[in-house]
Amino acid sequence: MKLEIYKSLWGMTGPLEAQFQQIAAAGYDGIEAGLPEKPAEFRHLLDAHHLKLVAMIFTDGATPTDHIKSFTAQLARATDLGPVKVNAHSARDCWSADDQARYFEAALSVTAKQSLAVAHETHRHRALFTPWNTAALLAKFPTLRLTADFSHWCCVCESLLDDQADAMALATARTSHIHGRVGYEEGPQVPDPSAPEYARHVERHLAWWSAVFAAHRHTNVPVADLWFICLWMTKRIREVFAKDFA
User: What are 127-182's pLDDT values in tens digits?
Assistant: First the structure.
């Protein structure tokens, strides 16, 4: 497992090439950005500055069907850019549970047909806007993976989520991308994370991110001895097929 850190283009100003130069000079592994108006130029800048890409897509429309179509079309455009993964702002918070489920069933079906990893962000205005709503969808869809921006949940819930331990454990286990933003009870971004009055907020977010890293380290640990597995399978094959090759 390798830690890679990407700089979002959100909030940056000035010519795009200057932004890429600044990000590369700071030592970031890549950038996270929405779909560009000029994809060929954008891809050229990525290559020129040796930066990877996490592409962002934002589903929209009046109905779940519109959002499904939006997801499918934007995912195709994102794939053409050659990103390492896609971060999706998916569906709507105001939909019924059935409509949200219909969207994710379709989106995950589309994703399963290609090799690009897609994570869905825990964001206000979207289906994954609270820990409990997200937990219900994660339980229903085992292949659903998250972009963890837990700062939004702190804002929506007006708390540091002390009463959401089970939902947080499930969310961290199913996270494949992290937004390193620290939220608090009054908003999705503390004014200054280095200020002492926000130390406990920073520590809480670091604990959640540590749980994500721990989950990924666990997935890389062999569950059994490889030599034993090979010997066991060899024996079993000989038992099953002995008569065919006698």
Answer: 999 999 999 999 999 999 999 999 999 999 999 999 999 999 999 999 999 999 99
Phi, psi of 29 (to 5 degrees): -80, -25
pLDDT tens across 84-116, in order? Answer: 999 999 999 999 999 999 999 999 999 999 889
pTM of the model: 0.87
The CA angle 154-199-132, to the nearest 5 degrees, is 20
Residue type, 110: V
Q: In the chain, what are the domains?
A: 6-245 (3.20.20.150)
Angle separating helix axes 39-48 and 16-25, nearest 10 degrees: 30
Residue 184, exposed/middle/buried by CB under 10 A (0-12, 13-18, 19+)?
buried
Which long-range contacts does 217-220 make (Cβ < 8 Å, 24+ apart)? 217/1, 220/1
**Crossing angle, helix 131-140 and helix 97-112, to 10 degrees?**
50
